[in-house]
Each structure stands twice: as structure tokens, then as C-alpha cells.
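tool_call: predict_structure(chain=1)
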Amino acid sequence: MKEEKKAYDYWLASLSPLSARKKRMLTEVFGNAEDIYYIEEKQLKEKAFLSEKDICVLINKERREAAARAWEKIQESGITMTTFGGADYPKRLLKIPDPPYALFVRGELPPDDQPSVAIVGARRCTPYGEEMALVYGEALAAAGIAVISGMAKGVDGAGQRGALNVGGKTYGVLGCGVDVCYPREHIGLYMDIIKQGGILSERCPGEPPLPAYFPERNRVISGLADVILVMEAKVKSGSLITADQALEQGKDVYALPGPVNSPLSEGCHQLIRQGAGILLSPEELLAELGMEKVHLMKKSDKTKIVLESPENMVYSCLGLFPKSTSHIIEETGLSPGRVVEALVSLVLEGYAREISRNHYVRADKRTDGKV
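tool_result:
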């Protein structure tokens, strides 16, 4: 009987473009999805919040048959579903203005009793933004905090990879079906998140990543998090939409300061100007969140870099912002040949990256090819 009830829940969840708000209102008025399924058209027309188009969607026979077929396939795929008001529905989402009617899951749902922080930011981030996302992801997860994000390129993926690096929990909220890996290049990250957390979406399995789905997805990211960190963002970006939604939900927002002439830091500086917290170090953030430093796991010795000169000299002068070969030669005092040789060695070992021709940044070997 429970699975039969879930089939009705899926039918209602699949009815687009019927909004999540109207689906919740229908269950409040009629009781549950099964009761709604059998309501007569005359009774539906008595409800002022339903348009003619809504009623046509609700009584459409083809849509009902398609939902029944899709539900059978979903059960075989191992994807689970929770609906608004259900015992396993995330309690944090009950507190936001427009919670999803349904959530589909691969892996597990975020536990209600585990602290959670969202790490969001630019897809085309700088090496600085990527590194900071990774560092904060590691520190938060090591302190027992779940990392929530959207599994996108750049900041999102780096933050979630950081959580995975220390064996922590992370949850990816998608703007498509949970069986659709987007972006496709993150298939490794996608599979790892399923093992160490979960992939979530309010879109039905099989749905593609459409632009209209992402602002809706962002409210779920902020809704599942206790605190939101914006690592890098332009003034007009999805990350600021997430931050705005978080503020509407009464959540604390922190932003990472950056160079004043960087467009990718403008959004963060705007948030700080408006009263967001300033990210200065993971330790300070954890202290503000009430997490003691002693909770942090020790990083593996594998992350310690022991290099002989001149590699050590060249590595020491690299940072998160690109430096030219000529600048490195001047700073180290080494010959051009030795600097080039050291840079080649560092790049091959994963300790440096060539961002543009003859311009290098320090790299974190742990992220190579993974985010």
C-alpha cells in the first residue's frame, strides 16, 4: 500500500507546469495525492486557486498513464522520493517560503540534526576562488558539517570535492533530474557524492537542465543550509540569487573578499557592504559557528609538499594569482633555464598550473582532474 501511495505522489509531483505551491495547496484541501487523483472535475473547478489549464493537467488521462509507467522505471533505478509533509522530508525545507512538493534522491538526504553550510560561487572562478572553496569545504567537513552545493563547475565542485577529500558528507542539488549528471564532466564527482552523501532535485528523473530550473534549484540549496558562503560572484549571478533567497529565509550569509578590481569579487563585496559576514579563515568561521578548532581532522601527510631547490624556491613564490616567468626569475634570482625546468617539474607533479602562456599559479595536487 505504501508503494501504491507513492505512485500517486509521483503523479502529482510530475504535473508540470503546476507549481509546487499549488500542489501543496491541493494536498491541504483534499488530503493527499491519492484523493486528488480521484477528485471530480466539478470539485476542482470550485477551487479559485486553480486555472482552467491547471484542471486540464490534473484530469489528463495521458499524463496519468505516463506517470504510472515512469514510476515503475524509477522504482527499478534505486531513486527514492520524499514529498512535502512526509516523515523523511527535510525539516529545514519546511521553514522556507516556497518548499518543493517533492524531492528525488540518489544516495541519502541530509540529516536534520547535522549542521550544514552551502558553498556557492562562480563557475568560471579564479584559481583563488577555487582554492578557497576547496579549503573551506575541507575544513567544514572535517568539523562534522555537511557541505551543500549545486555540483557546478568552479566553486561549487571545488567546495564539494574538499568535503570528499576528508571523508565528509556533501549533497548536490541539481537543476535537472537526479539521474542526469550536469555538467557531464563532473561524472566522477557525481558518483563520489552519491557514495558520501546524496544527489537531490525537485525535477523528475530524466528532466534536462533547463535555465528556468536553476533559480528554483538555488532556493533548495539555501533552504537545506544553515549558513551560506559565497566564494566568488559577479554582481548579477546565480550565487547572489542564492544569497538573496538565503536572507529571505533568515539564514546567515558570508562572502569572501577579493581584489577590488576583480569582477568576480564585485558580488562578494556588495554582499559585505550590505552586512554579510567576511570570510577571513576557516578557523574564524568555525569559531563564529561555535565549532572548536580541535574538531578539525588532521590533514594527511600526503598534502605536505617537500621539494628540493630550485623547485622549492619557485614553488614558494607562486600564489593564487598568476605570475609571469620573468617575474619568477626576478623574485628567485635563478637563471631562466633553471626556472623553466623547475616550473615544468612542478606542473608535471601537480603543484603548479600554467593559466596562460608563461603565467603560473600554485595548484593543489588533490584537485587535479577532479573538479
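agent: The CA atoms of residues 260 and 266 lie 7 Å apart. Proceeding to next step.
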